[in-house]
Request: fold
Amino acid sequence: MKLVAATGNLNKLREFREILIGFEIVSAADAGFLSEVEETGKTFSENAFLKARAVCRATGLPALADDSGLCVEALGGAPGVYSARYAAKFAPADWRAGNRAFLLRQMEGIENRRAWFTCAVALCFPDGRELSAEGRAYGSILHENRGTGGFGYDPVFLSDDLGVTFAEASEEEKNRVSHRGRALAALKELL
Ligand code: IMP
Reply:
């Protein structure tokens, strides 16, 4: 089965292909979809469906999308759906310091460091059928960066499953326990 991945992110595309073996996965750009879909949803799932539906409608092919982010218990689930633009949205004056530095500043003096990554995946078919799944990875937020791998919040996220940060883990180790890996595995079961 051919699926269009509603993402321009090559890391995600590679992960989709590694996990959904047996499916031919092409990028949205390769399927002729070049626009950006605005992520206006209030939940990860809403945003994943916004992207998957738009790409499915435009290409006439089954479309797969994901939306993910970091949720910190002591911050009421923030940065959540704003993970990618956390500092830009809430500290526009000094957003250049970056999301991770901003998060650590927000958590100064906070003892409860519990956090989890969430990923929602949505798959939309041209005949209107829709499937979705969610995956989580639990851990805690460190006080400083550890490790050089991964991206985004990985260096400050100490994984419960691995005992090291996602930035210290190899790609295979991270994929095995990551929110995205788990969401895709659950979607595969549904398929
Ligand atoms: P999106 O799913 O492409 O909208 O990305 C959401 C944002 O959440 C990213 O820009 C990162 O800041 C954060 N994020 C999502 N997954 C991960 C991960 O596996 N490691 C580190 N940060 C992540």
Summary: The mean pLDDT is 94. Strands lie at 2-5, 24-27, 63-72, 114-124, 130-141, 157-159. The first strand starts at residue 2 and ends at 5. Helices lie at 10-19, 44-59, 86-90, 99-106, 171-177, 179-190.
